[in-house]
């Protein structure tokens, strides 16, 4: 089944060029199916890129998905046209009384700040509290994963001596878990962050389970509440060129950035990157949708609690 997306969302045309099947709202209303309702809180600066990345990895599910986009009222995006925000995003306050089968909260370029110093932290914590009673299962990605672990469980973040930047092999620690169904013994995951959470802190919390990690990049996936919360420290959703764009952007700004590891052939940025994570990224999101959203959410969405 395709994803049901708002009419005129730019990702529709971009992904049709990749032979990914999506339909707009007008066509979806003619299908007599109860779609899964997903909401994305998109905190990334360039909204359209992140929308497209997430829709790409969600698109291989046999389920019909209705995707909505949430924004926080206390922050104005500087890198996305205001017309796009008005057309496709709604403030959390307008969505507060709605319930969703699944939610994705993205990373944000604020990891250099203490959580309480983020200008929209109060609204974020309000959304975190709301998600526990209005969403069946939530994926927290990168900064959102660190923020969620801190808010719910008191897990601190730590600055890294240098940016964790590249593609790193991850090991599933519980390979029989449904989230890893169909996975190989190792899978690749992009990382792009200046901070980390540490295994010892997470292990000290009985409500958390580390389910995947890397010798190089550390903890990568943490599960809580039997799959109602997943905290992913990397960016499985990244497109092939995202790290390349980040690397060349930082070089252009004169920032101290190293070549992303395990990304370019022979670490040569003049060569096209090697895509080694796409299949497992798609499988990760598909398994989440199937086993932790579709098979757990009630048919009557109002029964979510």
- The name CATH uses for the topology is Rossmann fold
Mean pLDDT metric: 90
In this structure, how is the largest beta sheet organized?
12 strands, mixed
What string, H for helix and E for strand, traces the elements in order?
EHEHEHEHEHEHEHEEHEEEHH
CATH homologous superfamily designation: Class I glutamine amidotransferase (GATase) domain
Q: CATH first level: which class?
A: Alpha Beta
Number of strands: 12
Description:
- With 305 residues, the chain is of the alpha/beta class.
- The chain has a single domain, classed as Class I glutamine amidotransferase (GATase) domain (Rossmann fold).
- It is built from ten helices and twelve strands.
- The chain has helices spanning 10-16, 25-28, 47-58, 82-88, 92-95, 121-134, 143-153, 199-203, 242-252, 278-294, and strands spanning 3-5, 22-24, 36-41, 65-71, 89-91, 100-105, 135-141, 158-172, 187-196, 208-214, 218-224, 229-232.
- Strands 1, 2, 3, 4, 5, 6, 7, 8, 9, 10, 11 and 12 form a twelve-stranded mixed beta sheet that branches.
- α1 (10-16) crosses α3.
- The longest helix has 17 residues, at 278-294.
- The chain is globular.
- It starts with a strand and ends in an 11-residue tail after the last helix.
In terms of topology, how is this protein built?
Layout: E1 3-5, H1 10-16, E2 22-24, H2 25-28, E3 36-41, H3 47-58, E4 65-71, H4 82-88, E5 89-91, H5 92-95, E6 100-105, H6 121-134, E7 135-141, H7 143-153, E8 158-172, E9 187-196, H8 199-203, E10 208-214, E11 218-224, E12 229-232, H9 242-252, H10 278-294
Parallel strand pairs: 1-2, 1-4, 3-4, 3-6, 4-5, 6-7, 7-12
Antiparallel strand pairs: 8-9, 8-10, 10-11, 11-12
Helix pairs in contact: 1-3
């Amino acid at each position: 089944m395709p994803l049901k997306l708002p009419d005129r969302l730019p990702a529709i045309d971009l992904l049709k060029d990749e032979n990914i099947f999506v339909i707009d709202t007008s066509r979806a209303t003619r299908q007599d199916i109860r779609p899964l309702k997903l909401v994305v809180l998109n905190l990334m600066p360039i909204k359209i890129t992140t929308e497209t990345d997430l829709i790409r990895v969600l698109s291989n599910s046999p389920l019909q998905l209705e995707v909505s986009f949430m924004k926080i009222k206390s922050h104005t995006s500087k890198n996305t046209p205001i017309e796009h925000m008005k057309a496709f995003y709604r403030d959390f306050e307008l969505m507060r009384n709605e319930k969703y089968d699944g939610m994705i909260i993205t990373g944000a370029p604020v990891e250099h700040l203490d959580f309480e110093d983020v200008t929209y932290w109060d609204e974020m914590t309000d959304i975190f509290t709301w998600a526990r009673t209005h969403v069946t299962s939530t994926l927290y990605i990168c900064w959102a994963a660190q923020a969620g672990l801190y808010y719910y469980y008191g897990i601190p973040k730590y600055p890294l001596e240098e940016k964790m930047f590249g593609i790193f092999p991850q090991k599933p620690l519980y390979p029989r878990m449904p989230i890893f169904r169909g996975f190989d013994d190792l899978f690749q995951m992009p990382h792009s962050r200046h901070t980390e959470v540490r295994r010892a802190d997470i292990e000290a919390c009985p409500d958390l389970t580390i389910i995947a990690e890397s010798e190089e990049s550390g903890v990568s996936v943490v599960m809580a509440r039997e799959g109602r919360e997943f905290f992913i420290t990397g960016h499985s959703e990244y497109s092939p060129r995202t790290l390349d764009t980040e690397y060349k952007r930082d070089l252009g700004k004169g920032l101290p950035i190293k070549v992303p590891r395990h990304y370019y052939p022979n670490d040569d940025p003049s060569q096209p990157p090697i895509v080694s994570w796409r299949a497992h990224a798609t499988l990760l999101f598909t398994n989440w949708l199937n086993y932790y959203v579709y098979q757990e959410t009630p048919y009557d969405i109002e029964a979510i609690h």
